[in-house]
Specification:
2 copies of one chain form a homodimer. By secondary structure, chain A is an all-alpha fold. The first copy, chain A, has a single domain, classed as Farnesyl Diphosphate Synthase (Orthogonal Bundle), CATH 1.10.600.10. Chain A has 15 helices and 2 strands. The first copy, chain A, has helices spanning 2-20, 26-36, 43-54, 64-85, 96-100, 102-120, 125-151, 156-181, 186-213, 216-219, 232-239, 250-256, 261-273, 276-295, 302-316, and strands at residues 89-90, 93-94. In chain A, strand 1 and strand 2 (93-94) form a beta hairpin. In chain A, helix 3 crosses helix 8. The longest helix of chain A has 28 residues, at 186-213. The radius of gyration of chain A is 19 Å and the shape is globular. The A-B interface holds A 23-28, 77, 80, 83-84, 102-104, 106-107, 109-111, 113-115, 117-118, 120-125, 128-129, 131-133, 135-136, 138-140, 142-144, 146-147 and B 23-28, 77, 80, 83-84, 102-104, 106-107, 109-111, 113-115, 117-118, 120-125, 128-129, 131-133, 135-136, 138-140, 142-144, 146-147.
Chain lengths: 319, 319
């Protein structure tokens, strides 16, 4: 029953995503459809929809555009990320950047961001305030990551701040707004917010692990992409059992600032041997367990079970 | 009296603009303050504020964040434009792109855009819908310009569409929302919308003229910047008295697609000799006159007089 509602909801989310990006400017139309239709896990809108249902919402059609907006923020940042990372493939397809060039990729990212705004506008003030805050945090997290990568400085605390802002912010905002829209009281909305936050952290740590040990054929993007930006250094640091807050081991920091692929290959090997991946996986399990605890503050229901399944999906994902 | 209210309002707009961009991420903080504090004419927030007053609004403090949001959209697009144009100076200062590099300029533009969202969120649905639409049009206009420049195809109709979307959209949205916030009826809100629209068109045509004949010492940016992207071709075409909708004269189109500065210098000379500037100025006078006519549908008041002064400011500006 819930599975059917979710399936139907996710179909509606896809429809919303595709309709809102239609444009009479061919380039924007084509580039936007290219990235939106390249797939992706859609975990953020699924979380938003399920949070709405778990909080007792019974008109899922009202949460569709909100869920689509959450995915749209994520998609807009992907397009801009790919410019900054010079990435050629994303989700197994050519990036907007690689196909349409930098100028149009920049404009396409901006365009998708205006579409977030368009999807959200009808929801009114509280939702727009929450969404705006999430977007601010997200850009701050991305910037902090770029700053840390450029400086070759990354420690466990900085890493935590980065993933909380750049990834967990959107997860928690989606879950929280879904709950609010269902009329959840403070307690339940906060529980779902906390669930989203910790699920987002787990998702990002697993994402960074996949960047080291993932199969590019399965993940659809080159391995070592984020390691090159210094994200993997946190894991190396954990593997080296360095105290939090202290600059990373110089040897690792040195390779982490090398953007060249040669350096990346060497660093990946070093990371795999360091035991860092196991430590990172343990951290992911910790936050996943916090997500589970938060969920127990929500009344039992098939939707809550489906939210719990999201944890497994995140922890077991291979792409 | 109105002058004092406007002065006070514009001081509050500046304060709002500066406060909202504060961040604990130094790079975002510094780059945002750099561009926001580099000045600019602030014609968009002034228009928004004056439209509010002309429509009978008597609590100008309520329109301050709205006016700031309008300027913030403009500022965000400037930062991204400068990336795409490889511009080194803006408002007589180094661009964010030139000083912080492309990655941080892209993120700073995104950050400023999230701040639009933050400033607008409390205003609720109708305002956010109008603002979202304006932002979509703006990005579409920018894209259309890039497409036309790349293809070396620019005619009078395309030019009109571009400036209506990329420039007039924000002017009209600011004036319209200012009027709505003051409680204007449909008739008055529409009159101020139309005023903003035509003022925006006049502003952009004059801007493109300044790109050809302006003094870089006064404008604070290099001459021939937009001509290189093909905008000036519309004027050349008018100077050549070619019918609207027809591709531009090959000779002009050829130089217009040359981004190199040498080609630009030659093209500028050609444009100045072609009489195109005079034709463009005539077009600006036409839309300025339409702006004036729209204004006469608004009851006479000192604020309306101040709006009329904006027309003169646009038509006589040298920077």
């Amino acid at each position: 029953m819930v599975a059917q509602i979710v399936d139907k909801g996710m179909v509606a989310v896809e429809k919303s995503l595709r309709q809102v990006i239609d444009s009479d400017i061919d380039t924007l139309h084509d580039a936007s459809h290219h990235i939106i239709e390249s797939g992706g896990k859609r975990i953020r809108p699924r979380l938003t929809l399920l949070a709405y249902l778990a909080a007792g919402g019974d008109r899922p059609e009202t949460v569709v555009d909100l869920a689509a907006a959450i995915e749209m923020v994520h998609t807009a940042t992907l397009v801009h990320d790919d410019i900054n990372d010079h990435s050629l493939t994303r989700r197994g397809k050519v990036t907007v950047h690689a196909r349409w060039g930098r100028t149009f990729a920049l404009l396409t990212g901006d365009y998708l961001f205006t579409k977030v705004y368009e999807l959200m506008a009808p929801y009114g003030a509280p939702y727009n305030v929450i969404m705006a805050e999430a977007c601010v945090k997200l850009v701050e997290g991305e910037t902090l990551q770029a700053v840390a990568a450029k400086a070759g400085q990354m420690d466990r605390e900085i890493y935590k701040t980065i993933i909380a802002r750049k990834t967990a912010s959107l997860f928690e905002a989606g879950a929280y707004m879904g709950a609010l829209l269902a009329g959840a009281d403070d307690q339940m909305a906060t529980a779902l917010h906390d669930f989203g936050h910790n699920l987002g952290l787990a998702f990002q740590i697993m994402d960074d692990i996949l960047d080291i040990i993932g199969d590019p054929e399965v993940t659809g993007k080159p391995v070592g992409l984020d390691v090159a930006k210094g994200m993997g250094v946190m894991m190396a640091q954990n593997g080296n059992k360095r105290p939090a807050g202290q600059p990373v081991a110089t040897a690792v920091a040195d390779v982490s600032t090398e953007i060249e692929r040669d350096g990346v290959t060497e660093m990946l090997a070093r990371l795999r041997d360091s035991g860092a991946v196991e430590v990172a996986r343990q951290q992911a399990q910790e936050v996943a367990s916090r997500a589970r605890t938060a969920l127990y503050r929500v009344p039992a229901s098939p939707a809550r079970d489906a939210l719990e399944d999201l944890i497994d999906m995140v922890m077991e994902r291979e792409q």
